[in-house]
Specification:
It contains 16 helices and 13 strands. The protein is of the alpha+beta class. The strands form five sheets. The chain has a four-stranded mixed beta sheet. A three-stranded antiparallel beta sheet has the order 5-13-10. A two-stranded antiparallel sheet has the order 3-4. About 4% of the residues have low confidence.
């Protein structure tokens, strides 16, 4: 099922309906235990995390996570690289929208957000000094992030090219000197002169200590690009689409309104629609037995749409963020929770708020939908169609 080219949205909706009828975790028809309540999710991700194999969607090689100390160092370095740049001042949204629009002024869904966010985070991904690497980043975003993780193709020439792109990353990284800094050795180090050296993701992967080959570092670089560009880009499309449909597309829109809009968008359409953990021991979740080696799926989308937590859960209502309950705060998991949550979630939110406000405040918008349902693959993207933006004033 998960290798099918078609969207998985109908399965997500089925699981949401099953979750509404269940009193706790339950098994899907193919045997995977499905968790759709915030308390069970928190137990897995935080309270009883030691019952599950440590993993990371960002800092791992194949299915195996990097050692904890190395993951901590990598997270620290990633945040330093993000902090190095004033992305708000560097980014020209008008040029980006002009470049990404087709001859009719259309921004094609399931593509344009990823491409725009790729440009936004360009200084953080691979600084301009890395010309050859930047060409490979563009190829990877098109051939893998968009073609596989958003749109969802099976084995096509573009899919097979990903291996060649990784080999190209490895070759370019092999030619660069390893970055040796005090901060790479001690993540807790405060700001030093070495901070200026951490400018991009290339610096992050080169600075990691341990027996990592250039191919290993290339894989880590690809995973960081996917998390930074793919998840944020798909979410930006949702923010703009829903903002236009619900009247936020006006020069009068305020940053605080866009802030609530972003959070409601991530609640109703979480780009990371599920989290998967592998049990390290035999145990129980709310009375349901779990065997060692079994995979447990946390349905973020189902938790975010639970009528037991959210009033009118399927309604799009950004104003709800002005009066959240404690249970609702606990049930909001767009970036995961616990030690393995997205380390750059704060930067992702700021990027969505900044870009969302720039676009909704500065452009008039029109949306056309070709299919009524969202497109769920690795990422949860908007339906097929297009958005047209015209400069206000």
């Amino acid at each position: 099922m998960f290798l099918d080219r078609q969207s998985l949205w109908r399965h997500l909706r089925q699981w949401e309906n099953l979750a509404a009828e269940a009193e706790g975790p339950f098994r899907l028809r193919f045997g995977t235990l499905f968790v759709a309540d915030a308390d069970s999710a928190r137990e897995i991700l935080v309270d009883s995390a030691d019952r599950y194999i440590q993993q990371s969607g960002f800092f791992r090689l194949g299915p195996e996570p990097l050692p904890q100390a190395l993951r901590t160092a990598a997270s620290h370095e990633l945040l330093r690289a993000l902090s190095h740049h004033d992305l708000h001042a560097l980014f020209d949204v008008d040029d980006a929208i002009h470049e990404l629009s087709d001859s009719r002024g259309h921004l094609r869904h399931q593509r344009w957000g990823v491409r725009l966010v790729r440009r936004y985070f360009a200084p953080v991904i691979a600084h301009h000094r890395h010309t050859a690497l930047n060409s490979l980043v563009d190829a990877y975003v098109e051939s893998s992030v968009i073609a596989d993780d958003v749109v969802g193709r099976v084995v096509t020439p573009s899919h097979r090219s990903v291996r060649r792109i990784r080999a190209g990353f490895a070759e370019q990284l092999r030619r660069l000197p390893a970055r040796e800094t005090e901060a790479a050795a001690t993540p807790a180090t405060t700001a030093t002169d070495a901070d200026a050296d951490v400018r991009d993701l290339v610096d992050v992967v080169l600075g990691l200590r341990g027996e990592l080959t250039p191919a290993d570092r290339a894989q880590l670089l690809q995973r960081l690009i996917l998390s930074m560009v793919g998840f944020t880009g798909a979410a930006l499309e949702w923010v703009v689409l829903l903002g236009i449909q619900h009247g936020y597309n006006t020069p009068a829109v305020r940053p605080d309104q866009v802030r609530s809009l972003v959070r409601e968008t991530l609640r109703l359409y979480p780009t990371a629609w599920r989290l998967v953990r592998e049990a390290a021991t035999d145990h129980e979740i709310r009375g349901v037995p779990v065997s060692k080696g079994e995979h447990v799926m946390i349905g973020t989308h189902a938790i975010h749409r639970s009528g037991a937590v959210w009033d009118r859960p399927l309604d799009f209502d950004p104003s709800r963020w002005e009066r959240l309950t404690d249970d609702q705060r606990r049930a909001f998991l767009p970036f995961g929770k616990g030690a393995e949550m997205c380390p750059a979630n704060g930067f992702a939110l700021k990027a969505l708020e900044h870009l969302g406000h720039l676009i909704l405040h500065g452009y008039r918008g029109t949306v056309r939908i070709r299919k009524r349902t969202p497109h769920a693959r690795t990422l949860l993207a908007p339906p097929a169609g297009w958005t047209r933006l015209t400069k206000s004033g």
